[in-house]
Amino acid sequence: MNKSIALIFTLLMLIISGCKTQNVPLSEEVNPIPLSQLEMRGELHTRIAKNYARLEETRFQPKFVFHTDEESGNWPGDIEGRTMLGLVMAAQVAGREPLYLEEIIAQIPEHLNEKGYFRPILSNFKASEMRVLYNEHINHP
């Protein structure tokens, strides 16, 4: 059985490696269509509208979106970053400005430590992978 699988895999690899792809010049760029130029209809439109409405529920509003370590499960910046990203993407496809995005962005500095990161500065040379990961998402989307 193992020999048969190995033989089939080898033949498949030989066939694939012999396939020729289109010769596309490296200088040719792919130009994606901006989301703002697409018109969503049907089920996709309905799902986008529901997602947008969900992102404007109370728990994602500025007063509630900034979480403590305990509330976020020690993932600083996670809910904040995901909320902002979701609002930006939803705005592009829905064609309307998010209700709370600017207020959320305006409140970010109130939730940063003196070095510009979420949560208190760790002492004694401690590091947290989660802090680096999610603070990086907020600072450099």
Query: What share of the residues lie within helices?
Result: 40-55%
Helix count, DSSP H or I runs of 4 or more residues: 7
Structural class: mainly alpha
Give the DSSP E fraction (strand runs of 2 or more residues): under 5%
For the secondary structure, the number of strands is: 0
Chain-averaged pLDDT: 79
Major beta sheet summary: none
Which regions contain 5 or more consecutive residues with pLDDT less than 50?
Answer: none
The gyration radius over C-alpha positions equals: 23 Å
Helix-strand topology string: HHHHHHH
Number of domains: 1
Taking the alpha carbons of the first and last residues, their distance comes to 49 Å
Tell me, briefly, the overall form. Answer: extended
Structure in words:
- This protein is mainly alpha-helical and 141 residues long.
- The chain has one domain.
- 52% of the residues lie in helices and 0% in strands.
- It contains seven helices and no strands.
- It is extended and about 60 Å long.
- The model has no long low-confidence stretch (mean pLDDT 79).
